[in-house]
Amino acid sequence: MTEYQLQTHSYQETEALGKKLADSLKAGDVILMNGDLGVGKTTFTRGLAQGLGIKKNVKSPTFTLIREYQDGRLPLYHMDAYRLESSPDEDLGFDEYFNGNGVTIVEWPQFIKDEVPDDHMSINIKRLENDDDRQIVLKLHGESYQQRDFGDFLTGASK
Length: 159
Description:
Layout: E1 2-8, H1 11-22, E2 30-34, H2 41-51, E3 66-69, E4 76-80, H3 94-98, E5 103-107, E6 120-127, E7 134-141, H4 143-146
Parallel strand pairs: 2-5, 2-6, 4-5
Antiparallel strand pairs: 1-7, 3-4, 6-7
């Protein structure tokens, strides 16, 4: 596993960082988003969607579990597994998304950890002392991600 740390100082920078990551994504990519409520997981995802060319406004999938956006360079599947805490054994066809033709982002992935493929990225967002500052940690799990070039996304990152 390889780990990179980045920092943002506003929600606009967090969104812009997501947009940068989109340039390096390909079909079948799985991104696990971790962080407290309101820390910027959906903000990051909104930027990523913009980077994929998605025009629709990205909203949190809290009440729908999965929101699909088909109008970009790649489809985006945005999942929120928080409500699955009480029913983790329910078969919702996650493997079809994880092995599909788009990019899958999962918020609260700990509630479906047995469904997550071994090869994936995880992004942990943490609020720092200044309420606008965020520490963003990208972890690359699996050889297929560690061999990839993430270009501009990692500019300024520390390993």
